[in-house]
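Run: sequence + nicotinamide-adenine-dinucleotide -> complex structure.
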Amino acid sequence: MIYNHPEFDRHHELHFHDDPTTGLKAIIAIHRAWDKPSMGGCRMRNYSNDESALRDVLRLSRGMSYKSVMAGLDFGGAKSVIIGAPKPAARGAVLASMANFLNRLGGRYITGIDVGVSADDVAFMSKHTKYTAGTGALPPEKMTAAGVYTALKASAKHRLRADSLNGLTISILGLGKVGFQLAEMALADGASVLGADINPATLNSAIELGVTPVSVDDAHKMPCDIFAPCALGGILNPMTIPELNCAIVAGAANNQFTNLDDAAELSGRNILYAPDYIANAGGLIVLAMEYNRQNEAWARAKVNALGDTLTMIFEQADAVDGNTGATAERIGAARIADMAQGSELAA
Ligand code: NAD
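>> structure
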């Protein structure tokens, strides 16, 4: 039963779609719904089974609520997952079916890009539904990368007393849309950048940029100042944490921990962790910018403020036990409770 699912957090809505005509199987989870639509990207993956897709969408949608309130936004968190990547010839029909699924929710959920779903895919869906965002002039991943870069600098300032990334060594796992731009900015600052990616073409482009390649299995083990997870979640777990050789973990990937105990394990090892849903909020800020009819300057100010939020979390954690993950959870949960109080919709 869903109520007993370990990742169920009193989610407000959970919708399942199974379209025999196109083969689309998808889930939409709305973790919290306040007075505005709930927001979060659409992920497409070849999940090993339906249970791992359900677990992913429950965790990711919850993370979106925390991301929203920690970025000073008032959108509830939501996410959707498409189970299984279709063959190229069937992609259009599957995306159109997903758009119809969004229409059935009547605007309570607005989606955008995520892993496996490109800006072109979202633009295609937007021909069939009004409920997409993030295909305007400012690409969400650009602001996500800018936010992660801000997180690296705030973390380096706090832990290493460094005013810039110049001279630091940064190991990036995943050199896709966000990781690649992060590498560009870090290199421009004078950092040494190590990088790994499962896609050889992506890795080669990064090497041309000046990134030193390391293997996917070794990226988190490299002696460095900052390890930046920018591939998929779950990279910080009981097996990998003892292998870390860095002062800071700050990156773009959602759900970097398997659970919150891992955050305590990191702080116990004196590694500073920049909570993922704060560091990577730039993409959501772009969706909010579009919905609120704001401009890039508004989005940039919100992205820059992520650094101040992280510094506040670091200082509050230092005053207790150094556990930044637990501190962010506590503050995020309190802000979510406040949002529910102020909303006309029930908590
Ligand atoms: P992406 O798909 O463009 O890039 C991910 C990269 O990781 C790809 O190059 C892929 O080949 C690589 N990769 C996948 N599995 C890997 C593995 N096991 N080891 C090494 N490399 C691997 O995605 P992105 O948009 O750059 O996002 C990166 C992460 O940041 C994701 O976890 C995503 O959920 C998160 N995120 C992205 C945004 C955004 O605006 N794009 C916003 C918030 C969070």
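>> summary
The chain has a mean pLDDT of 96. The chain has eleven helices and twelve strands.
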